Structure formats: C-alpha cells, structure tokens
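Q: Here's a chain of 418 amino acids. Please give me its 3D structure as tokens.
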Amino acid sequence: MGEEIYDIAVIGAGAAGLICAITAARLGARPVLLEHMPEPAKKILATGNGRCNYTNLKQGLENYYCEVPGFVNAAFKRFSCQDAIHFFEQLGIRPTFKNGTCVYPESGQAASVRSALLLEAKRLRIPMLLPVGIRTVKKSSSLFEILTKTVTIKSRACVIATGGKAAKKTGSDGSGYIYARQLGHTIITPLPALGALVADYGKWKLPSGIRVPCKADLYIDGENAASERGELQITDYGISGIVIFQFSRVAARALAEKKKAEVAFDFKPDNGARELAEFLQGRFQSIYHADKTLEECLLGFLPDKLIPVILSRSGADARQKCKACSLGQTKKIASQLKRYWVTITGTKDFSLAQATAGGVAVSEIKAGTMESKIVSGLYFAGEIVDVDAKCGGYHLQWAWSSGYAAGTAAVERIRREG
C-alpha cells in the first residue's frame, strides 16, 4: 500500500475529514483517510449532548469567530446549511428541529450521523488507515509524502483535518499543528473555547451547584465585548453553562493578551432596574410578606442559595423584617440583581472545552477552496483552522462546509493538472 499514489490523502477521519473524502470520491477521485485513533469520528458522538446538533438554519457571521470574517462565508457558499440537510437526508438522516433553527437527526442519536458517514465511506470504498501514527508530512516535487510508523503514503493533494486540542480523548490532540508547521504554516495560539471560566468573586462567593437564567455581559478592559442570555451554572471554581460557553473564547483570548476580563450578570433581564425595585418594594410591604425576613420573602423569586449572597452584597441583613426595608435599601438589592460583577482569572483546560479557538492562520489559506497559500495542493478543513463558533450546530456546519470545499477544490486542481 505504501507504493500506491492516491489522489488525495485526508489526515483525520472526523467530521471534516469524512465529508472531504466522501466528496472527493463522489467526484471520481481516489482519496485515502488516515486516522491516529482506533476508531474514526469519535468526537461526533459527543456533539449535542449525544444527540448531534449537526447544523443550524440561522446562519450568520455573528455566530462565528474568525480574524477575517468573510473567510467563512466563502466556504458556506459552496456548502450551506441546506446543503448539509440535503446531504444527510441522502444518507437516511431525516432532520428534526429544536428551538426553531437547531437541526438534529430524527433518531435523536449522534451515533446515527457518525454511522451514516462511515457507511457512505464504505459504499464508496474509501480506504481508511487506523490507527496510524504520522511522523512527518512533506511535499517532494509534485507529490505529498506522509511518513507513518509503518508505511509512506503518497498523494497528489493533501488535506489536514485533524481538529484542534479540545476533547483529547476523542483524538483532538493538536498533532495537526505539527504537520502544518512542518509545511510552513503559522499557528495562532490554540485556546479553550466553549468552556467554563475561572472566577474571582472577591468577598462574596456565588454558591456552587445552582443553575439560574440570566443575561451576561463580558467586559474586556472596561469595554463591552459580548452579551449573551441563557442558563448560568455556578461551580466551585467559577462559572459555566451555555451563557458562558458562547463567549468563553473571547475571554480566553483577552486573558492570553494580559487584558482584564469581567462579567456582569443580570439575574432579572426581563425587568428594568426601576421596575424591579418597585416590584420588590411592593413585595416587601405586602400583607403576605411584611413580617417575614428578607431572606424568607425572596424564596421562590431567586434560587435559595443565591438569596443570602445578593442580600449581603447589597448591604442588607437577611434577618431583617421586610416592613423595615427602606426604598433605598430595596434599590440596592435590585441593583445587585441587575449588575452582579465577577472577575475572570482563567479558563478551564482543553479537557473540559468543547472547541478550540486558534489554529492555522486564515490569512495563509485561500477562502472558498481552503487551499494553502504557501504549499500548492495542501488544504485544511474543520477545527484545525483558526475558525470557531458559538453553540448550536455551528462548529459542525463549519466542518461540513470547509471539508466539502477542500475536497471539491482538491479534485478540481487535480483535474486541471491532468
């Protein structure tokens, strides 16, 4: 097998690598897949909490993070979310929708998506080498040579789709960055994304183990950098949950650049500060609550463990009778509920992150084809590129679009060269 010359060698048999190889094979090329894990596409099994949110109908640059925003659109023009839905319908995956735009397989199982891809690769007779340990990737004359522990794979084009560094146990160990550097590419420092943040609460520590809906504003050096709304999960080390995941990469990049990161929580985002203060004052003075303590009165309005923290931080005595609470004190309580500040001191490591921010610099990749500007015939796809996104099926859509673009462009190049 080491003497064979393939049209395209695809390094990484994850979401991006599989669709890349499938696309190339459908176009008549001879691809080969190389995967260093014993099983391919393990990370797909963890997506969408095991249900695989494989795309989202609501596409837009606001959902993606990229140093060159228009870069992602070029790939999406080749393969859109509707194309992804159609592609998987061909493979037997009927879509079902959540929250109006998030697309899942009708089976409700991520394993269905993975199996559909692997069965299509099998139908197309795409050879898959696994587990294979790659030592070097280089280009000699017009061919790529991929030296493994046992054989050397030769190909006319090469696609690196190894993923980033998040969730190492699924195969994303950062090895693709080594190959990219060997071929002359710049790697933007990889950082954890879609993960939890470590927080310094100061004197008043938020209680761990609770979940609360809120609006969260991220401030970098005093400037509002992101705003999200969703469920906050408070942990023993800091803050987590969907509302934090959505902008964790922004905080991670800021901290790496030695900037100050803070989050301001609004625990009652549906009410203005004045409206909230008036509501609380009315509650405190009602016949049903006037003789209760402030802590007792707020039961049912806030998570139990959060109540004493809010009261203490506002300067109120939790044991004080509601009828003795002045309007001024009520306004202070409302103020804490509307603007509760915490300082971000770090991120959790890649083992607890769902994605990677950073990777191969997009300035060195041709938009739309995913071909390297440095090495002709070299392509990149998926998370190895410095593109990441918010939760909601956006990372997988990037994998599908970039993988399809790379596979299509590689075949087009091979045909031009004859």
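Q: Can you summarize the key feature?
A: The mean pLDDT is 96.
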